[in-house]
Amino acid sequence: MANVSAIFIYPIKSCGGISVPQAPLTPTGLRWDRQWLVVNYKGRAYTQRVEPKLSLVEVELSNDAFLEDWKPSDTSFLVIKAPGMDVLKVPLREPPENTDGVSVWEWSGSALDEGDAPSKWFSDFLGKPCRLVRFNAASQSRKVNADYGPGHQIMFSDQFPYLLISQGSLDALNEVLKEPVSINRFRPNILVDGCEPFSEDLWTEIGIDKFIFQCVRLCARCKVPSINQETGIAGPEPNETLKKIRSDTVLRPKHAQKGQIFFGQNLVWKNLTTEGKGKIIKVGDKVNILGKVSSVAEAVA
User: Fold this and answer.
1) Backbone angles phi and psi of 201, in degrees to 5
2) H and E: helices and strands count for the chain
């Protein structure tokens, strides 16, 4: 029986993740996930694709922040650290300042500006003008591509609210790599164990505890997995090996070829309207496979 073996939150897009024992579910993803974004002077998102140093930024939240219905107080902070930098504390209470012209991939809109101290901190760290902004859920929405997740929304994630990977898939990849890589290269929200390698490719619907998730699209990987998250330095692996064993040419030869490599499965939370309390997933939760296709060539990609 498959089960949840780890849960990860990435409060600031492209910065370090937090491994947590449990996390509240929200319609846009796990609570606190990709709520913040570092942007340039034009309001465009900085990601590890162009600023791999962001991988060195560590983020901390109190354990209480992952309790259901927890509300931040005046002494609640997002704690941010990086090599050679003083510790930065960003209040979790939403800032009053709104800024227009923020954009990430296809989306543009306004966001909450965290002020001058975080701006100076990130500008000093990256060596170029930056602002730290927070998604303004009260006034903004960002829709998931309707071809894959109609009616669903995200904050500053790339495309989908949840990313799942199996430990078996990571283990199978590491068996063919000269140097094994950590799961942090792939930045999943949910790591599952107790299933065959790459079995998540085939899943179309799963249950975690009482919550139903649709598996809507195989995760096509960019260059980020090639960035060592401990050093911020990119190398050829694991992407070169993934091209040989996980490319569309190998997995989906009869489909249109886009030069993609796949690792992981994107999810949306199907029963968003679940009543009552307890909208939390926990490490150790059982994962029930409710639907699947017979081959990866049939999966949506």
Assistant:
1) -55, -35
2) 4, 18
